[in-house]
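A reminder before we start the practical. When you read a complex entry, don't treat the lines as separate problems. The point of joint prediction is that each chain is placed relative to the others, so the output describes one connected object in space. Small molecules and nucleic acid strands, if listed, are placed in the same frame. In the example below there are four entries. Take a minute to note the order of the lines before looking further.
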Amino acid sequence: MLTPRKLAILQAVIDEYILTGLPIGSRTISKRNDMNVSSATIRNEMADLEDDGFLVQPHTSAGRIPSDKAYRLYVNMLMHTIDLDENERNSIRKYFDVKMQEIEQLIGVTAQALSETTKLTSVVIGPQTSQLKLKRVQLVKIADTTALIVFVMDTGVIRNMTVQIPQDITPEYLEALSQSLSKCVEDKTMQEAVNEIRNSFSLEKGENRRLLDTVIDTVSKSDSEVQERNIIFGGTENIFNHPEYRNIDKARDFLKLLEKKDNIYNMMSKATDMEFSIKIGAENDIDQLKDMSVVMATYKFGNSKIGSFGVIGPTRMNYGKIMSILSYVGSNISSILNYMIDDDDGLYLK
Amino acid sequence: MLTPRKLAILQAVIDEYILTGLPIGSRTISKRNDMNVSSATIRNEMADLEDDGFLVQPHTSAGRIPSDKAYRLYVNMLMHTIDLDENERNSIRKYFDVKMQEIEQLIGVTAQALSETTKLTSVVIGPQTSQLKLKRVQLVKIADTTALIVFVMDTGVIRNMTVQIPQDITPEYLEALSQSLSKCVEDKTMQEAVNEIRNSFSLEKGENRRLLDTVIDTVSKSDSEVQERNIIFGGTENIFNHPEYRNIDKARDFLKLLEKKDNIYNMMSKATDMEFSIKIGAENDIDQLKDMSVVMATYKFGNSKIGSFGVIGPTRMNYGKIMSILSYVGSNISSILNYMIDDDDGLYLK
DNA sequence: GTTAGCACTCGTATGTGATGAGTGCTAATA
DNA sequence: TATTAGCACTCATCACATACGAGTGCTAAC
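Here is the predicted structure of the whole assembly.
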């Protein structure tokens, strides 16, 4: 049974451990002024908490440290998000106070802001263009056999790629094609659009056929690749800030994981259904993160969640604070994104 | 004086040290079958080499390790580039055997190929568009108040960015403007082009003036930013492969350096005048690299060197091998780049 | 000029004992 | 019955001592 006192003790252990990273002994807890019982009593309670799987002893004569289960309970029940003070807000806001030219810059700034304020490794994935709806398509001839194909999403995001075209295609033809393609893809996702084009234009023959095929081909190929690259990390060196990770082999594994990107990318994109997602220790699917925690949040563009960002660090992290930071960073991202589309003379979104 | 025997001993020490990373003693050298003198003789010679600054003793009763000066001599005189065998060539070629869609992919693959075959940290910087000549400019209206501005470089590289435009600008006007802009910027670098536009169109007034100003503004701003982002690293975790860097604080500093990017970017772009550039230990301008070596090479597009790539690792690296690898990787990059422009139905360069 | 021999150096590994934080358990207490 | 004081016990950590061995510099002999 988790009596109120047990909960209080557990909370105290977690708080203390998050602060120091050292195993917490019974006396440390009993000395806290909100505890009015002796260390012996605490010891008995702690023994019970250990039996219930909330505390772990690294070795017989050491204090206790919280288990993943304890952190989970903490996050679910005991934690109060910690409001940021004016100073902290300012130091975050100053990252976003520069004029953003393109979405990549925003992603970079976000990663930086996150890692520097949390002192953890940050991850940001860019807008998932695959989930956005298309507004129009524009083909532009830029060389004899090369055209640029530009996708304008409903949020204003632009994606473009080059495509080889037969030599005798005229700009006027491309303009006409752009018009009819635009009609047919409006309000569809990239993937849907590709299918739609396949169907609607299935009767085309000859040169047109070849052109369309190349377009479809190029688009679908690049779709997967763009995503893979659209993830960035910040403060990778912060992994060393935490004594429990001052271990070369762990660090190497971690860097390797970041370098591969796709594992983390998958993890991040899975989490887009909730406002926050917290994975503690073994709750992580990725092996190398089994003794770390990942806290993620999503950002919105208009009404739909189109990307996510978060931090990776030791299970011993200040969840309350981290969540407040994520939340504040998120609101900054949103306002920048909106600013980017709304503002008439300033900032443009690529 | 550096007698032939001294040189041979120095070479032996370097070879051995590159292999093991441990201080090399006189007996180790004298046992090599190409040495027919006793360890005592070697000791005397080594003492001389130490006086001349080619060898260093980490402490009194340890063997010797080569100094930066020794590596420099080695690279200049003693080193023979080591031909790659069929296996090694294949394992590199397989990285480039995939179809490349865009230049970013090529950069990524290069970084990967380099870091995996050298087991070092690799750096690749993308084509320096600022040094390329423009072929034409194309403005395309993609929304009510947004246009895409596309720069086509003479090598086929394309750069584009969005720009806000007054609402009443027609596509036809943009087309006409594209024509006259193209004429005026042809064969100039981005920077020259901006100046040229400023001069040639200095008489424009009103709406046109505003449009032009916005274009010039956007372009010059983004010019610097694009470059900054156009550098990527591979195999950062390889820093830990070398015993001399199994030191957390060194590793942290190194990661921090990579994260900042601009220092390394500057170093890399300085080195574009030579085929190879080797910086050994203290020859590096960057503090954190004072005990590492950087080997860089450049790649060409058409006739001009437009980017560079290389590796960063311990001064104790197999320079001969590394250079062969860089050279082979370089030739792969070139052929891919040419393929990208020449091939009519396959690959496109963004 | 080369080499064998030897005393010397010094980093590394190993072992030992002291220290102290923290525990579990028992018996006394409220 | 819950709490607490007291105490024996555990065990990681640290300081210190010792042994080991790779490698050196130097000298004297070849």
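Discuss with your neighbour: Chain A touches chain B through 49 residues (CB under 8 Å). What might explain this?
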